[in-house]
Write a structure and sequence with these properties.
By secondary structure, the chain is of the alpha/beta class. The protein has helices spanning 28-40, 60-77, 90-100, 120-133, 153-162, 178-187, 201-206, 221-233, 235-258, 264-275, 296-306, and strands spanning 11-15, 45-48, 81-84, 107-110, 139-143, 166-171, 193-195, 211-214. An eight-stranded parallel β-sheet has the order 7-6-5-4-3-2-1-8. Helix 1 (28-40) runs parallel beside helix 2 and helix 5 packs parallel to helix 6 (178-187). The longest helix has 24 residues, at 235-258. It is globular, with a radius of gyration of 18 Å. The two termini are 33 Å apart.
C-alpha cells in the first residue's frame, strides 16, 4: 500500500471491531466477513487495532492474524488501510510494529507510553525508536482524552519537528470549541493531519480538521461514508445530519457512559449491534463490561426515528 502523507490522510475511516464469542474467543471467519462488509461500504480507509478493536487484549498471534486479514483484503480491493501497533507497554508496541512492517500499511497508529505520563523527551525518544524501525511507514499518534498525557495543539509541532514521519493525530476536539479549532489550524501548519471524533465530523471538517476514525461508522459504515461525502457537496445538509447524530448520541448512547459507567468501546460494539451490519458478538473481552444485548431493541427503534438513513 502506498504510504499516506499529511496531505492524503483525510476522510471517514471505518474501524475494525473484534468478532468474539461469549468467552472472548476470536472468530476469524466472522472477522473476514466484517472486513468484506467494510470494504463494500467504500470508506476513505479502514483501520485496525484501535480501542474498538480492543488492541490491549490481543496476543501477538491474534494481532498478526487480524493484521494479515485486513491487509490482504484491503490490498486486493485498493482500499487504504492503517494498522494500530499500540500497546500499554512500549516494548510490545515496537514488537507489533516489527511484526507487521512487511504488510506495508499506509500508516501505523501509536499511543505514547502509558504507564506514567510521558514527558516530551520520553515521547520523542519513543517515537524516534519507532520511526527507526518502521521501514519508512509513517505514524499517526492516537491521543485520546483518557490518555495519561493529553497533548495540546501547541505541543504537536514539537513532536513533528523531532519526528518527521509523524503525519497526523487522532484527538478529541474539546467539545468543538472555537478556541481549540483556532489552535488546531495554527498547529496544522507544521504538516499534520488532524482527526477528530466521528460524531463531530461535519463541524470539524468545516472548521479545518481532516477527518475522523469514525465511531459513527460503527452504526452503519456505508451511511457514515455517504454523510462524509455530503460535507463537501452540501454543508448545510451535512450539519443537519450531524445535529441528529448528536441527538442520537446524547439520548441513546451517552447515558450508558455517564449514568452506567460503561467504557467508550462498549458503546462502539453496542452501536454495531444496533446497526446490525456485522456479527461482531455482544461482549467485550474480560475484564471490561458490555452493554446488555437486551438494550439494543429499544435503542434501535429510537435510532430509526432520529437517523433513519442509517437503517435503510
Amino acid at each position: 500500500m502506498k504510504s499516506l502523507t499529511s496531505d492524503s490522510l483525510k476522510g471517514n475511516w471505518a474501524t475494525l471491531l473484534l468478532t468474539t464469542d461469549e468467552a472472548g474467543k476470536l472468530d476469524y471467519g466472522r472477522l473476514e466477513d466484517e472486513v468484506e462488509t467494510l470494504v463494500a461500504a467504500h470508506p476513505s480507509g479502514i483501520y485496525s487495532n484501535g480501542t474498538a478493536c480492543e488492541f490491549y487484549s490481543q496476543t501477538m498471534d491474534e494481532f498478526r492474524r487480524i493484521s494479515e486479514i485486513l491487509a490482504s483484503r484491503c490490498e486486493a480491493a485498493g482500499v487504504p488501510f492503517q494498522i494500530g501497533v499500540s500497546h500499554p507497554c512500549a516494548g510490545e508496541s515496537l514488537e507489533r510494529l516489527l511484526a507487521i512492517r512487511d504488510l506495508r500499511p499506509g500508516a501505523v497508529q501509536v499511543i505514547l507510553p502509558d504507564w506514567f505520563p510521558s514527558s516530551t523527551a520520553a515521547a520523542v525518544d519513543f517515537l524516534k525508536v519507532m520511526e527507526e524501525n518502521a521501514g519508512g511507514i509513517p505514524m499517526v499518534i492516537y491521543n485520546p482524552p483518557h490518555a495519561k498525557r493529553v497533548m495540546k495543539p501547541a505541543e504537536w509541532a514539537v513532536l513533528k519537528s523531532e519526528v518527521d514521519s509523524v503525519i497526523g493525530l487522532k484527538v478529541f476536539d474539546d467539545n468543538r470549541s472555537g478556541e481549540w479549532y483556532a489552535q488546531m489550524r495554527e498547529a496544522k501548519k507544521c504538516g499534520l493531519s488532524i482527526f477528530i471524533p466521528g460524531h463531530h465530523l461535519a463541524f470539524g471538517i468545516l472548521h479545518g480538521a481532516d477527518g475522523a476514525y469514525s465511531n459513527v461508522s460503527c452504526i452503519n459504515p456505508r451511511a457514515a461514508q455517504q454523510w462524509y461525502e455530503t460535507i463537501g457537496k452540501d454543508p448545510e445538509a451535512a450539519m443537519e445530519t450531524e445535529g441528529r447524530i448528536q441527538k442520537f448520541m446524547s439520548e441513546c448512547i451517552d447515558p450508558f457512559i455517564v449514568r452506567d459507567g460503561y467504557p467508550n468501546h462498549a458503546c462502539d460494539r453496542f452501536m454495531a449491534l444496533v446497526g446490525g451490519w456485522a456479527d461482531v458478538g455482544p461482549k467485550l473481552r474480560w475484564p471490561y463490561q458490555s452493554i446488555p444485548l437486551s438494550c439494543a431493541e429499544a435503542v434501535r427503534a429510537r435510532a430509526r426515528q432520529i437517523i433513519p438513513e442509517f437503517f435503510i
